[in-house]
Amino acid sequence: MKKAIRTLLATSILAVSVQAAADTKVGFIYVGPKSDYGYNYAQDQGRLYLEEHMDDVETVHFENIPENADVQRVMERMVRSGVEVVFPTSYGYLDHALKVAEKYPEVHFAHSGGLKTSDNLMTYFAEIDQAMYLSGVAAGLTTKTNKLGFIAAHPIPQVLRNINAFTRGAQSVNPEVTTSVIWTSNWSDPTKEAEAAEALISDGADVLTGHVDSPINYVQVAERRGVYSVGYHADASQFAPEGWLVGAVWNWGPMMVDIVKSAEDGTWKSEHLRGDLLTGAAKLSDFGSAVSDEDQQTVLDRQEAIMNEEFQVWAGPVIAQDGTVLVEEGDVMTLEETEKMDFLVNGVKGRLK
Amino acid sequence: MTITTQPAVRFGLRLLRGPTGAVLIMAATFVLAALTFFAINGRESISLFQEMVMGAFGDGYSFSETLVKTAPILLTALAVALPARLGLISVGGEGQLYLGALFGTGAVLAAVDQPGWLLMPLMLMGAMAGGALWGVIPGLLKTRLGVNETISTLLLNYVGVLLVSFVVHGPWKNPNSLGWPATIEFPQGAILPQFFDTRVHMGLIFGVVAAIMLHILVTRSRWGLGLQVSRSNPRVGATAGISYERNVLIVMAIGGLLAGLAGIAEASVIQNRLQDGLASGYGMTGFLVAWLAGQHFLRIIPLSVLMGGLLASADSLQLYAQLPKASADILQALLFIIVLAVASLWPNRPKA
Q1: Are residues A206 and A65 in the same domain?
Q2: pTM listed for this prediction
Q3: Which residues contact A231 (CB under 8 A, 6 or more apart)?
Q4: B319: which chain A residues are within 8 Å (Cβ-Cβ)?
Q5: Range of the domain at A336
């Protein structure tokens, strides 16, 4: 009798798992609202792409989950409801995701932008600093005050790369340019972002950009105060019809499809998967009318040079704020070095907290 | 015409007029309000409500996560209920929780190489000292300067949260975290014991034991009687040798100490480190629970479990119905309003 029950149990478990295998459930966790026209919006666009391009995929998603241990419960609930691939999309989820991944070795985790992996946790990201460099070129050509403003959340490598790349891009066409940085210590704090934008403009900046979850706040302030803006994460040009120059945007969809497929067919690798301008995971948005055709061509030429690998964003000389030469002329920073970036370049005004 | 009522029915009616009836009406109204809220959002109310109940108590895992939320709510509710015995309205649980986490983490960082038998007590003592400090300060302000304790505890909450933010962005930031604002992970010796391979931890035991002890102390001891006298008439109390001022400091310190324990338990077991967003508003939820329980220590225990369940099961609202996370906050507010409204309308209202 006992044996019969056990067999029954085993077959029913098998039946359940076979049924689950028919449809891959994929779960997404966002730190903010998916309607932020920024980071979370871009990740959610990836999710929608995934649903559209893979018939056997079903997705669930959570918004506004803070970067604390609450996210562990959210991930466990997802896994317990049958989710087989989890996308914890915010930087601060990494350590929590590693813990949950250890507990559920049969589930796959793909973390956005982290620098740690485990057997069933990989990371995906893209070298969007290439697009930020190009946006910097547009900003350097446009600015009249030679002052750019950058609103930044946390002094982590991703953000430093963008500040530095943006500044170097602008300097490449306009050596007089400086970038002032204001930290908000939060991925999303609309009040602080708007205040920072006001302060930067009052200080003379006439092109604003940033690295916070949603570009809307500073883009709107810039538009109202009559200065230019460079977007980040997603195309926010509708919020600044006059002052929008260009922006660096994500295109996660194809990458997410690859990740989910690899989980399905067993080719999953515990790795740091990185895209760039060439793979299309990071892109330059459309130009706004504020950028002249000639300047647009300059930016596009530079883009082609990057895609042909004739030109590298992190080719020396890379000079720190205090004038120290960090990378000699002729050397190029490796991807690993850029992903651990802990400095600001010459021409950036602001401190690393 | 005369109506002859059976004794049983009469007994039932009397019961309904009393506190039991009030609680039943509260529960029914809340369920109705929640169902309406779901329906307004265009969801299948009943099944969604079922999902929520299952998400809170449906299986071992769900219940364990409910208990994880219960611990800090219970401790911060006690931190409100004890001062209330003296007629004080403290809303400082959140700040006391953060100060407990701050001082406890300070102890851990200072003695990080010490073995667990030394590190753990140091951490707990630090946490209790930090929480108690954030209780005593408003106590002193009240007794020495006559500053309203509700205002001072409320404002000190912000100071506590920002102090933690300051240290994790600055001096205590883990140098190997690539700029991410958080301390190092706590060493194994500084992680409070957990039960049954879940995240349920010692903090819950602290809370339950503290609730029972406080109940006995306040209802059975001379000191408890003294609190009652002090509350109703401090001058009469003074003639009997009961110092109102000293009692204010004692209840605020003990309350703060308990909230401080909640803070270090969150940092140690749940987050494994000190970081921003440590408490997700437990202090305020604790305040609600203390008031729902009529400041009764033993009633606080089951109510904390219920409230923990409500918060923990909010996930299912997103998972199954894609309702925004704020829905849980809305339900919590609905519950509070309904309880207060019913309590004030009911003839034999429960002491609240």
Answers
A1: no
A2: 0.84
A3: A209, A215, A219, A237, A244, A246, A247, A248, A249, A285
A4: 60, 62, 77-78, 81
A5: 129-249+282-349
